[in-house]
């Protein structure tokens, strides 16, 4: 693993900040100062920062019921509240994918980069389910078009699962996660989203977790995520 990535993996700093630490000569490998962020290292390499050994931190996965107005990014001082601000963990967590600021519901956070990549990469087809409140009553024609897939500016979507809950409430399940995809799909079929809440990500469902609250996933739940994310 590249040295800068390894430091980020250990929770020392972001990858960019890790590169700065390396360039400043504050990182050693087996007692020797290293200034190449691409140096290949692992847990047995003896990596230290400012003379203190660093090792990968324990992996965690959290589920958060994101409120509206909270951004799906890592902490950014001086800006809007971020999802990581709502999770009580000492680990350096990152959101798995995104929910736009106006959307609510289930978002996962983890410090396991490999798992995060598996859960978000299109090749693994991890399903996400969204409950939508629409501006106008949904028609059967609109539901059929969503189920077939629609043409967007960045290409056609995969077929979606779409079902009516009531006249203006539908649930849509996708196996991909482009930027604001659900909202754009609904607009493409002639309707508009008034409210969007994600209620499922892979095998994990939001359940009764209160809005604004987070909980750490239990080992069997993390195992289920890995099982869903197998090639």
Question: What does this entry look like structurally?
Answer:
With 231 residues, the chain is of the alpha+beta class. It has 3 domains: 3-53, RNA-binding S4 domain (Structural Genomics Hypothetical 15.5 Kd Protein In mrcA-pckA Intergenic Region, Chain A, Roll); 61-122 and 204-228, Pseudouridine synthase I, catalytic domain, N-terminal subdomain (Alpha-Beta Plaits, 2-Layer Sandwich); 127-201, Alpha-L RNA-binding motif (Alpha-Beta Plaits, 2-Layer Sandwich). The protein is 22% helix and 27% strand. The chain has 6 helices and 15 strands. The strands form 3 sheets. Strands 5, 6, 7, 8, 11, 12, 13, 14 and 15 form a 9-stranded mixed beta sheet that branches. Helix 1 (3-9) crosses helix 2. It is elongated and about 70 Å long. The model has no long low-confidence stretch (mean pLDDT 93).
Number of strands: 15
User: Which structural class fits the helix and strand makeup?
Assistant: alpha+beta
| Beta-strand fraction estimate | 25-35%
Determine the mean pLDDT: 93
From the alpha carbons, calculate the radius of gyration and give it in angstroms: 21 Å
Would you identify the regions where 5 or more consecutive residues have pLDDT less than 50? none
State the CATH topology of the largest domain. Alpha-Beta Plaits
| Main beta sheet | 9 strands, mixed
CATH superfamily of the largest domain: Pseudouridine synthase I, catalytic domain, N-terminal subdomain
Shape: elongated
């Amino acid at each position: 693993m590249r040295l800068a990535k390894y430091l980020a993996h250990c929770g020392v700093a972001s990858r960019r900040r890790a590169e700065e630490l390396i360039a400043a000569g504050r990182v050693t490998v087996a007692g020797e100062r290293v200034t190449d962020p691409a140096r290949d290292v692992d847990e047995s390499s003896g990596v230290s920062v400012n003379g203190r050994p660093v090792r990968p931190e324990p992996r965690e996965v959290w589920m958060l019921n994101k409120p509206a107005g909270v951004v799906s990014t890592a902490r950014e001082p001086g800006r809007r509240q971020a999802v990581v601000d709502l999770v009580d963990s000492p680990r350096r967590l990152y959101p798995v994918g995104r929910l736009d600021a106006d959307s609510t519901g289930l978002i996962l956070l983890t410090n396991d980069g490999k798992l995060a990549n598996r859960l978000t990469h299109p090749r693994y087809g991890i399903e996400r389910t969204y409950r939508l409140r629409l501006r106008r009553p949904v028609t059967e024609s609109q539901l059929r078009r969503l189920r077939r897939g629609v043409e967007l500016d960045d290409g056609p979507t995969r077929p979606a699962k779409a079902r009516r809950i009531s006249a203006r409430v539908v649930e849509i399940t996708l196996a991909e996660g482009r930027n604001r995809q659900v909202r754009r799909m609904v607009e493409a079929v002639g309707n508009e989203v008034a409210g969007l809440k994600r209620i499922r990500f892979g095998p994990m469902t939001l359940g009764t977790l209160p809005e604004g609250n987070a909980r750490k996933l239990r080992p069997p739940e993390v195992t289920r995520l890995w099982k869903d994310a197998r090639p």
